[in-house]
Amino acid sequence: DEIQGSLAFMLGIKPPTVFHLSSFALLQQLRLLDNPDMYLHFPRIRFLILSIFLFAIAGCVSKPPSAPVEPPVVEAPPPAAPEVLETKTGLASYYHPSLDGDETASGVPFDNTALMAAHPTYPFGTLVRVTNLEKAGAVVEVRITDRGPTAENTAEGVIIDLSGAAAEKLGMIIDGRVQVKVEVLEWGTDERS
Question: Positive or negative, the Cα torsion across 78, 187, 119, 125?
Fold first, then answer.
């Protein structure tokens, strides 16, 4: 009806006449269907016909539904590596399994399956990262719970004694001693149990 009203206005036809006519009947009344080439000579009619055509096509075309917009994924940065407070290099050895259950210098029972270590001076509770310098990727973090190594081992360059579990993670069970880097990540309080 809107298109017919616009067409009637542009052509000077009274609206009541137009509202009861179909588009086909309107074109027939205007005698456009009798002479198909007639519309080429009248710019107003060409514009009107083109407008009707485009309006009809626009009504047939539907916009595809837009995909839901997901918020951008913000990845948290990886946790910062702990600050290294002190670094030493030397040999590491490990406790004999027969010492399992014995009391350590800190008062904690030695557990060969836990990640524990002995150091001559670091306070009890100190967290250290031990890296096997002879085997790429072999790293373990342990807590200092005991004093050691023995004076004899220290004289040979051993700077830390590890539990069996820690030694296994470093891949040093067969060798017995390996060159390591010991990094202090957190100082302990030197509390005894």
Answer: negative
Express each pLDDT in 37-67 by its tens digit: 554 555 666 666 667 766 666 665 556 666 6
**Cα four-point dihedral sign 13, 18, 24, 29:** negative
pTM: predicted TM-score of the whole model, two decimal places: 0.59
Q: Is the pLDDT of residue 8 over 60?
A: no
Of the candidates 98, 146, 95, which has an alpha carbon nearest to the alpha carbon of residue 123? 146
**Helices marked H in the chain:** 2-11, 15-19, 23-29, 43-60, 151-155, 164-169
What is the C-alpha to C-alpha distance for residues 127 and 183, in angstroms, rounded to an integer?
Answer: 9
- The tally of CA atoms less than 13 A away on the side-chain side of residue 20 is 3
**Rounded to whole angstroms, how far apart are CA atoms 131 and 121?**
19
